[in-house]
Specification:
Elements: H1 2-16, H2 26-33, E1 59-62, E2 73-76, H3 88-91, H4 96-122, E3 130-131, E4 142-152, H5 156-161, H6 171-179, E5 181-190, E6 196-205, H7 220-238
Parallel strand pairs: 2-3, 2-4
Antiparallel strand pairs: 1-6, 4-5, 5-6
Helix pairs in contact: 4-7
Amino acid sequence: MKSFRILPFCLVSAILAGCSAAQSGSNGIKSVMVEPAPDAGFIEHPERQSKPADLPFQKVWIKPGSSLSAYQSLVVAPVNTYYMQEMDWLHKMSSVNVISDVKKDIEELAYYFHDQVVKKFKDDPQHRFQIVEYPGQQKGRVVRLELALIEIDPSQPVLHALSWAGPPGTGTAAGLINQRRAAFEGRLRDLQTGEVIATFADRDTADAGPLDLTRLTWYGPAKGIMDRWAEQFVQIANRRPGEAVEDPIPFTLRPF
């Protein structure tokens, strides 16, 4: 049954450039296949955002007249997890021990996301930004990247703990397992003026190959999605005028 669910995605990719390698136009494909997450509240004016064709994120607003080229240094703020505590599936858990473990995992995921973003910018061969980790380290104007994790779908172990997991391929449990989504909201703030110069939000999915050992933890697929976001932040910072940053198509058929 699972192969039939994956097949339509591969057919769409194959039409463009081959099921496992299609890239061109992938932002448009994602807009059809992945529904944006509801606004969580981290972004103050979400109604200003729209879907740009040249960026991989589903919602973006850029202050008119502002540009990343005006900044030489970047601060990556600690990742906000407040909105993750509002997830419906977390509220449905009755075990205090499980809830405690999941909340600890959420904090660890926030550290992971922050550290991956910092690492990707430090490893950037173009050294687009000076990463500021302590006072006095900055060069030129400084922009701060502020991120909030707002959603991570639970994987199979938590669903079993909630007694949601029925027979394979059925019900809400199967739908959540197969979605394997994560979402964030973010903003860029000029540290000199305190003004927000851009906001953006995205919901993405993990690769939908038939063999996925990351389901051994409830949050397993999320780390791969965070890695992708961190890479995209660097790509966006380095992109040339008129250049599009595409989102990889996550629906590939990987039998091994």
